[in-house]
Amino acid sequence: MSLEFIGIVGILIMFLLMFLRIPIAISMALPAVLGIYYLRGWGVLSTAVETIVWDHSFNYTLITIPMFIFMGELLFAAGISSELFSTFRIWFGKLRGGLAMATIGSSAIFAAASGSSLATTGTMGVISSKEMQKANYAKTLSGGSIVAGGTLGILIPPSTILIIYGMLTEQSIGSLLIAGIVPGVLLTVLFIFTIILTVKLNPKLAPIGSSYSWKERISAVRHIFWVLILFLLVIGGMYLGLFSPTEAAGVGAFGSFLIALIRKKVNWEVFLQASTNTVKTTGFLFAIILASFILNYFLALTRLPMVLASLFNNSSLSPGLIFLGIVIMYILLGAVMDTMAMIVVTIPIVLPVIEVLDFNLIWFGVVIVLVIEMALISPPIGMNCFVLNGVASDLKLESIFKGSFLFMIPIIVTVGILYFFPEVALYLPNTMK
Amino acid sequence: MKWLHQITNTFTLLAKWISLATLIAMTLLITVAVISRAIGHPVIGDVEISQLLMVALIMFGLPYTQSRDAHISIGLIVDRLPIKIQGVLNVISSLTLFFVCWLITVVFVNATVLNDSTFQKSTDLLSIPHLPFKIFIAVGFGLWGLQALLKVIDSIVSLINLSTKQPISDSEGKVKCL
Amino acid sequence: GCGVEKGSSASGGNVIEMNVNNTLPSTHHAAKNVYEPWKELVEEKTDGRVKVNLYHGGTLGSSASTLEDLQGGVYDVGTAIGSYFYDSALFPYTIGLLPYAFPNAETGTKVLDKFSKEVDIEVENVKVLGGVASDLYNLFSTKPIEKLEDLDGLKMRVQGKGDDVLAKSWGATPVSIKTDATYEGLEKGMIDVTPYTTVGVMGTKFYEVAPYVTKTKYSSTIMIPIMSESFYNRLPDDLKKLFDEELNPKLVELYAQSYIKESKKANKDISELVADKGKVIELTTKELNKFKEKSMVQWEEWVKDANERGYDGESMLAEFKKILKEEGVEAPK
Ligand code: NA
Ligand code: NA
């Protein structure tokens, strides 16, 4: 067996294990440790496991992840997310499809405080699915708009995926996070536009809601302030360089605690709930992160990434076609793979290709996030849809997936815009310098 | 077997509380460090303390995550299979889980408590030894592995029950927690 | 054929694979000037009997764990960098990190070579191929530092062991931040000063945001190319000889030359690069001596540290000073 072949066998075993309902982290770690043992023996395996697990736990950059998760959990626990939704409902409820738009809008704002798409989907899903059911919205439209709104969680900063991507590619995490702002706003607008168009073509999907006075509207806006203040503190502080992204996350978590405290929305029980949820999420994320770095070492030993990269480099395809190829590869992978696992497994393979093509790595990070967003809402494995199904089981998984298809179009459009106008992502990070 | 359950659960609960305390300590430390630097009295070694806390947060969080069955897996295919086959796969799944956790535990036990030959590292500025935190890794994965072992036993027990009794399942065909 | 060569089965006429891990990125001068040419040389001189798999960017392991990784056979050749070996058997080399030990990279490397031969450095399963000193550390700051007093109260980045002691001794406020946050930290005032080598800033571009370069010339990064002993033992005798006599010394030499070459270029370029925003400040002998005097605290700390680790710190220092003298360098007092 050639080394590369062993690498391919390892990846196939990983997929097999994943589909046998073995936890993703273990599916990645098992072929990796067996492969390292087969290639290099116990001594190398034990040293590699020791240094890899240590290096990626004793790690300052990765602290950003639990801190941002904590921030989102505290805001949810403090009831800020349901207030966000009601603000948007008061403003847009009267329009046809207004509650779906409110879902997108409040998801976008919540995304500014949450680093995870799953958290954003779960949080907004609880509230807005109930409201849309009550208002007799079609299950497809409700489900689709919630999972689509959820995808904004990893595009609008903070973003766990961009942090991991920055680690893997040695790019500035601050620049990456800030690069997500404009595309995030653009995608939010396109999502809303998609809803407007859809309900215009098929008004049965969403009835018209009740109307509110201007006084009520203006008074509702105050609920957005808290999250915006937090966003300005965290992203503004990072943008101005008052603190590093990791520190920004810590300050954000502390800030959201203060907000909850000021608003008297926090008690011991609520605080405990937010903290235990953070520990739980950190646990499963880091199991995957640690496993993936062990897998990456195994793949490096097989030289598979280098071989694949040189295949790309020696091919006579134009950069545009290679880019298209990479995007399609991610869409296909995203259909069947968990996104965090997908990015840590593929980035070391794709990175050399991207470097040869001279693509900007900050820009590419944003593109990757958009493609991952598609993965999150596409069957058969679309984590956002699973999460929504988990918190709102009366929205059937089938209708969620059916509804989510529509929202892939604006994501594809955004990828296209980014390809032809990279400045959309790069303008803000460039002005930082 | 009940005593093994009890011991594991007690230690997992303890691990959870340590993890929670670490999370809160980390948030406070980072905030204090930012503020004190802004007013001209930086905390020396804030970075390395955060890193050490991170090790504790992750390692004590892993077994708690398992106890809540929150490690992500893909049930897409298996969820639709007959209960008996699911039961067999559950045993296999828990065995692989146990194997990997046990392996990492062994690695860190070897590297820490059984190791006296090489130098032990410490942090750059405050010279805090890494050793206790490496032991945390052994403890975290050890507890996780212990839970996997319990799952193996539970899965086998429920598999045996299945072949003697009617399956206990909900409408969607998922095995309910026994 | 293209069969797998398991490390342990490599013998006789088989091709032996050697995994080399460069913890620095592929764009770093160590990749172009050191590892790539060395790979070619090894494959050429061994007539292809040794195949070098070169990994850049720390693919096989980070610089924090080079020694352990190599001892455990995670890869076969690598370079232990800078301050990561305080707690290892490579500790004696940290003497080369002391402020004002070396006047330049060239002498530094020579002194380290002699020193390592005098002080027996035994590392389990590791062949130490030599020690290389980088070009010297200067201060890159947002405000001009013409004299020691100008450092008063400035926030100075510290990272390695004893850095905080030195920063305080110079009157600065030590701030610990990560390498990747340094650029922004300087730009936005999180810190005012960072020590770095001039060759190093060509990559990190700290001079863009900290355009005042004070030539304190006070320390070096020490790099120690190392080879796994179990890999070495697998080599047939003729190849062992080839590595001992030619290839391994060549790796050290390439490293040393790369720093000498890059440092000449960097020193020339830096004045131009900061010309419109800041300037390069050459300290007067009197001022430089003040910096030196206030640095001695780190020398004292080092001896204490060495003794605590079970070495004879005083005699190691005496040996080091003797070698410096032989090389025509006056150790600071
Ligand atoms: Na976000
Ligand atoms: Na998908």
Number of strand elements of chain C: 12
Strand content of chain A: under 5%
Residue-averaged pLDDT of chain A: 86
Total beta strands of chain A: 0
Bound molecules: sodium ion
The span between the termini of chain C is 63 Å
How is the biggest beta sheet of chain A arranged?
none
Radius of gyration of chain A: 22 Å
- Tell me, briefly, the overall form of chain C: globular
Instruction: Report the radius of gyration of chain C as a whole number of Å.
Output: 21 Å
Low-confidence segments of chain C, ≥5 residues, pLDDT <50? 1-12
Order of helices and strands of chain C: EHEHEHEEEEHEHEHEEHHEHHH
Net shape of chain A: globular
Task: Note the total helix count of chain C.
Answer: 11
Instruction: Tell me the domain tally of chain A.
Output: 1
H/E series of chain A, N to C? HHHHHHHHHHHHHHHHHHHHHH
Share of residues in helices of chain A: over 70%
In terms of DSSP E residues, the strand content of chain C is 15-25%
**Largest inter-chain contact set:** A-B, 54 and 59 residues
Main sheet summary of chain C: 4 strands, antiparallel
GO cellular component, one term (chain A): plasma membrane
Transmembrane segments (chain A): 6-39, 60-80, 100-120, 141-167, 173-199, 220-240, 246-262, 283-301, 321-354, 361-383, 403-428
Pfam family, one (chain A): DctM
GO molecular function, one term (chain A): transmembrane transporter activity
